[in-house]
Design brief:
There is one protein chain. With about 90 residues, the protein is of the alpha+beta class. It has helices spanning about 1-35, 65-80; strands at about 35-40, 50-55, 55-65. The chain has a three-stranded antiparallel β-sheet with strand order 1-2-3, with helices on one face. Strand 1 and strand 2 (about 50-55) form a beta hairpin.
C-alpha cells in the first residue's frame, strides 16, 4: 500500500510507531467526537483519511503525522469559514 510505504520511507522509525498506534488514535478520536461507521478513503498517500458519520451528518476525518502541516490546513479552512471549502 502506497500510504504505508510513504509513511515508513519519509518518517522512518517515527512513522512506523505512528502507524502502529494509528488504530488506537482513530478509535480515541471516534469516541471523543462521537463518530461512527468510519471507512478509510481509497488511494491514501500521506495522511489517513476516513469517512463516516457524526449523528446524522457525514464527516471526513484526516489524521496526519505532520502536525504542522495539518495545523496550517486547519488555519486555512477556518479562514475561508465555509466559503468554497468545508466547514470545520
Amino acid at each position: 500500500m502506497e500510504f504505508l510505504n510513504n509513511i515508513k520511507v519519509i518518517y522512518g522509525e517515527r512513522g512506523r510507531a505512528w502507524l502502529e498506534n494509528l488504530h488506537s488514535l482513530v478509535s480515541n478520536l471516534a469516541l471523543k467526537w462521537n463518530l461512527r461507521d468510519l471507512v478509510p478513503c481509497e488511494d491514501l498517500s500521506y495522511n489517513y483519511v476516513i469517512s463516516g458519520w457524526r449523528n446524522d451528518s457525514p464527516v471526513i476525518l484526516k489524521v496526519g503525522i505532520d502536525h504542522a502541516a495539518i495545523e496550517q490546513e486547519c488555519s486555512a479552512i477556518h479562514a475561508f469559514n465555509g466559503h468554497g471549502l468545508i466547514k470545520l
